[in-house]
Write a structure and sequence with these properties.
alpha+beta; Ubiquitin-like (UB roll); 9 strands
Length: about 120
């Protein structure tokens, strides 16, 4: 069972293969944004890996981060699975932005259907 440490929220055992955005929201109780419903379109679920950054990314994550000039700066929690121990910092929350809510509830599986690629250097 992977252990996910969320900065300022604690460390949590989470279900193997759970989407990171859902682990942050449901297990850690952090009001992380996911305004597009976790379809790798809006980048509001952005995080910073402090430890345990995956070497793989979805093609959708690479494309949206490149378009927003964020590639190499942040990662998207909606495009990651909890399959190993990691430590993350959540960068955008409902509380910190003053928005009216996090966004549509994410699906249990990664959306869009993931096409895994190596993390660009």
């Amino acid at each position: 069972m992977p252990r996910i440490e969320v900065e300022d929220a604690g460390t949590f055992d989470v279900e193997e293969g759970k989407r990171l955005v859902l682990a942050i929201e449901e297990d850690a109780g952090v009001d992380i944004l996911h305004r597009c419903g976790s379809y790798a379109r809006c980048t509001t679920c952005r995080i910073e890996y402090l430890e345990g950054e995956p070497e793989k990314m979805t093609k959708a994550e690479v494309e949206v981060l490149e378009k927003r000039n964020l590639l190499g700066e942040v990662r998207l929690s909606c495009q990651a699975l909890c399959d190993h121990d990691m430590k993350v910092r959540v960068l955008m929350t409902v509380t910190s932005t003053g928005l009216d809510g996090p966004g549509p509830k994410p699906e249990r599986h990664i959306t869009p259907e993931p096409e895994w690629v190596d993390k660009p250097a």
